[in-house]
Design a protein that fits this description.
The chain has 469 residues and is α+β, with helices and mostly antiparallel strands. The chain folds into 2 domains: 238 residues, ABC-type transport auxiliary lipoprotein component (Rossmann fold, 3-Layer(aba) Sandwich), CATH 3.40.50; 154 residues, Porin (Beta Barrel), CATH 2.40.160. Helix content is 23%, strand content 43%. Helix 5 crosses helix 7 and helix 7 packs across helix 8. The N and C termini lie far apart (77 Å).
């Protein structure tokens, strides 16, 4: 509708208070979020279609061909967690994970081409049907009836099940609000764990046991806005979208990965024979590298580097600092730093930090500041690739007009900083920190006024190389 149409149907006082541009922006922003949700076919009826394969399925079917498939029986591969689905209100008897693990495992075995799965889950149904066939043949053909082919017996039996479902392993979120417009997002990560073992039917020996873990991600985005478009007219709009990774598909991926892992380790240990040993060797080599990488992950699926910071390190850094003292209009000036750091324990390190930079403020105050400090650092996650840290410092700060003279004045100084370090590899780290250092007196800027001592505020980034010696 045109604006002239609204002028005809709305009072003049109301039209005078409408703000067309902000209102349109509000509606367009909400419509954009709603549009993102409407792009999903959740609002449409869809017909049945072939099931979605897991992301591991292609790597399972791409394994080298076997010399001879192994006849394999699966009696039961079930949910052993005993957990029920969470519900905010009331109760439910729905299980937290799928109860169809046996069917999923049988499908993975058949698709891999390494196994000849035989029916054991519904063995009673199978034997009953074979009895019916014998009875009918006997009635019509008598003693001339052909006997049924014997059932295959298995070389190995696969056992195990879904042994763990941990919900909300990690959860979090964030949001913002500016006046009456805001948005928020939340995420939740769960995980499912399965164990699979191969048992010899000849001896009952457990030939191989593997286990896999698959994370399950849930996300939610919401946006809302409110606005008074008139004294007696209030507009409120909201939209959102949520995404929950299907648990059944997560279990399928974990089972596919377990079958692949069992097959490769079986080839490596001589339990299974590949048709092409060279191709199998290449697959085994890649698997060993990926397994070594997986062994470095912790309970929260973070990739760990156990040998981070193996020895003394040297850090070269740069940044900026501001003098907060008794002079007006202090400026932001660059600084450079050189630090020698010695790890004391996985979480602790002690260093000697030297910085040099300019200080200035209104009134022709310009000096060079040199600080030498001892710095004690605490790393929150020392073996992770990314870790926050806290740093406490204490030392001496000297300001002087002439860089070659260090005897003009000096002040004891101490403080702390908060930062984070990213380990490119076990020896090379990139860090960023922000902190404050407070002088023990009020003479750092040459003017002693007020009740607070002078302080230096600043931030820096640095590159550290460890294991110098």
């Amino acid at each position: 509708m045109s604006i002239s149409h609204w002028k005809r149907i709305l009072p003049t006082s109301l039209m005078s208070r409408l703000r067309i541009v902000p209102l349109l922006a509000l509606l367009v922003g909400t419509a954009s979020l709603t549009g993102c949700a409407s792009m999903d076919p959740a609002f449409e009826t869809r017909g049945a279609h072939p099931g979605i394969e897991s992301t591991t399925h292609d790597s399972l079917t791409a394994l080298p061909q076997p010399a001879s498939p192994v006849v394999t029986a699966v009696y039961q591969f079930r949910d052993q967690t005993g957990q029920y689905k969470r519900k905010e209100r009331g109760s439910t008897f729905s299980r937290a994970v799928t109860q169809g693990g046996t069917a999923i495992l049988m499908d993975a075995l058949a698709d891999s081409d390494w196994y000849r799965p035989i029916e054991r889950k519904g063995l009673s149904n199978l034997t009953q049907e074979r009895d019916i066939i014998r009875s009918i043949r006997q009635q019509y053909e008598g003693d001339r009836a052909d006997p049924l082919s014997p059932l295959l017996f298995a070389g190995i039996v696969l056992e195990g099940g879904i042994i763990g479902f941990d919900s909300n392993v990690i959860s979090g979120g964030g949001g913002f609000r500016l006046f009456s417009i805001g948005g928020s997002g939340e995420y939740r990560r769960s995980q499912v764990t399965i164990y699979l073992r191969a048992v010899s039917t000849q001896t009952g020996e457990v030939l191989k046991t593997v286990h896999t873990t698959k994370t399950i991600l849930s996300q939610e985005l919401q946006g809302n806005a409110t606005r008074f478009v008139a004294a007696n007219l209030f507009l409120e709009t909201e939209a959102g979208i949520s995404y929950n990774e299907p648990k059944t598909l997560a279990v399928t991926e974990a089972i596919d990965a377990a079958v692949r892992q069992l097959t490769i380790e079986g080839m490596r240990d001589g339990l299974f024979s590949p048709a092409d040993t060279a191709a199998a060797g290449s697959v085994i080599q890649r698997y060993e590298k990926s397994k070594a990488r997986a062994d470095r992950r912790d309970y929260f699926d973070r990739l760990l580097q156990p040998n981070n910071r193996p020895g003394p390190g040297i850090e070269v850094g740069s940044g900026g600092q501001v003098l907060q003292g008794d002079r007006q209009d202090p400026g932001l000036n660059p600084l450079g730093s050189l630090t020698l750091r010695q790890p004391l324990a996985p979480r602790w390190a002690l260093g000697l930090r030297n910085t040099v930079g300019r200080l200035d403020a209104a009134g022709d105050f310009q000096e060079t500041a040199l600080t030498s400090e001892l710095a004690l650092t605490y790393y929150f996650t020392p073996h992770a690739r990314f870790t926050p840290f806290l740093r406490a410092t204490g030392g001496v700060a000297t300001t002087f007009p002439d860089p070659h003279r260090l005897d003009d004045n000096g002040s004891l100084i101490g403080g702390g900083s908060l930062g984070a370090e990213y380990m490119v590899d076990e020896r090379l780290g990139v860090s960023a920190a922000f902190g404050v250092r407070v002088a023990a007196d009020d003479d750092l800027d040459g003017a002693a006024r007020g009740s607070f001592n002078d302080s230096l505020w600043g931030g820096s980034v640095g590159i550290t190389y460890y294991d110098l010696f």
